[in-house]
Amino acid sequence: MKSHLLAAAFFLSVAVPALTAQAPALDGEPYIHDPSTIAFSDGKFFTFGTGGGGLMSEDGWTWHPGAVRPGGGAAPDVIHIGDRYYLAYGSTGGGLAGGHAGTIHVMWTKTLDPKSPEFKFNDDSVVASSDGVEDCDAIDPSLMLDPTTGRLWLTYGTYFGYIRLVELDPKTGKRVAGNQPINVAIDMEASDLIYRDGWHYLLGTHGTCCDGPNSTYNIRVGRSRKVTGPYLDNMGIDMLKGGGKLVVAASGRFVGPGHFGRLDLGDGVEKFSCHYEADLDRSGRSVLDIRPLLWKDGWPVGGDNFAGGTYEIQSERSGFALELAVDFVRMDRGGRGGRGAPAGPVTPIPAQELAQVSPNWPAGNIDIRLGDFMFRPHQKWTITPVANAGGYPGSPYFKIAITGTDRTLAATADGEVVALPGFNGSPEQLWRIDQLTDGTYRIMPKSMPNSKEPMALTAVGSSTPTLARFDPKSDKARWNFKRP
């Protein structure tokens, strides 16, 4: 459930097939259930879960226990407004000891960092409730500040009845006096509201939870021009009648995605957090993940984190491929090729091998350029995650090297890119790869020597790559990864 614009202090898609084997979920100890939207506070990332407490991270990739919240209960959410972080959570309800009689609480603090002297939760107050008989269960709250009006909204509810919407005061977090709940959906839980391009989107988790690898959780969505609905899916079915377009479901070794939370990192990079009911590679435990959020025809689509592999790196601007600036070595035709039927037997021409061309390459640094892709060795890049090098929301940093060699892509002090003879793990050799909302990718060095500005790999012409500030309105710094 959960959704909000992440602080711009952290610098820093269309559905497309997964490029690689599925990337692992987050590093460290990302064990959590019903995570809140990830929030950025005092230079760290935080999320909270059912039962109290939560996780924190220095970089958005490696997570550990450490977030603190009072109140216990279930399925919290958090939002940053002004100098306050509002945290909502459900007390009882959910068919537990209290049955379906539940209450939603909201409290606030000026920081989420438990080590800060300003860390203190204040004004715990009830903003919604259910009596256990009515067609609603007051649990699973989610907060959204409408960017068009400045009004604060809270959704709540489970499969036991309706998903409901109430308005809160953004200055206090308390319920607006006299505000009555509005029914907006059924047959879902862990709801979330987000806004984009004139539409309000209501996301909710369908299916069954809390059964490990047998859980059927999946995330679906409807949209409306008005925050109060009606919310219709892509087929025009009202979410009050069970509608909902699929956003993300189980895949690979991850079962039961639920509790959506949007992270807008700016410059065309959107991601979302969720938990999996079971990560089969982590003893089937519930874990946190952060994945790319793509957009296709006005609808959100769950993307896949980059996992590595061997690729052509193709410029969206020109369609040319990133390559070493080395002399082109012709393939031996051997009397074959040409037009018409062959005079003799049909035989395959072997692909050009690295050993046939690399002896002619310079021993030191090699410049980088763009050229027509011809599946040659100087155009094939093997991309691998680098262990213990840190990361960014959802992913580790990567090494990008010519396949079969240790010639590694690196940023230079003058804002260019070269291939170094070897890899030493320095920041200018570590690369961040973010999938953009249209499905293309942004490629950025962890840092550039003598520069504190974030730079992106950019095609300034049809044949010239360089490093420059990312322009989300241009194709110059958008790239595709294709199997050679």
Task: Provide an overview of this structure.
The protein is mainly beta and 484 residues long. The protein has 2 domains: 3-302, Tachylectin-2, Chain A (5 Propeller), CATH 2.115.10; 309-327 and 354-482, Trefoil (Acidic Fibroblast Growth Factor, subunit A), CATH 2.80.10. 1% of the residues lie in helices and 42% in strands. The chain is built from 1 helix and 36 strands. It has a 5-stranded mixed beta sheet with strand order 1-19-20-21-22, with no helix packed on it. A 5-stranded mixed beta sheet has the order 2-6-5-4-3, with no helix packed on it. The protein is elongated.
Structural descriptors:
484 residues; mainly beta; Tachylectin-2, Chain A; Trefoil (Acidic Fibroblast Growth Factor, subunit A); 2 domains; 5-stranded mixed sheet; elongated
Topology (elements, then pairings):
Layout: E1 3-5, E2 27-28, E3 39-41, E4 44-48, E5 54-57, E6 62-67, E7 74-81, E8 84-92, E9 102-109, E10 122-129, E11 142-145, E12 152-156, E13 163-168, E14 182-185, E15 189-196, E16 199-206, E17 218-224, E18 245-248, E19 254-266, E20 269-279, E21 285-296, E22 299-302, E23 309-315, E24 321-324, H1 354-357, E25 366-371, E26 381-385, E27 391-392, E28 395-396, E29 398-402, E30 408-411, E31 417-420, E32 431-435, E33 441-445, E34 456-459, E35 465-468, E36 479-482
Parallel strand pairs: 1-19, 2-6
Antiparallel strand pairs: 3-4, 4-5, 5-6, 7-8, 8-9, 9-10, 11-12, 12-13, 13-14, 15-16, 16-17, 17-18, 19-20, 20-21, 21-22, 23-26, 23-36, 24-25, 25-31, 26-29, 27-28, 30-31, 32-33, 34-35
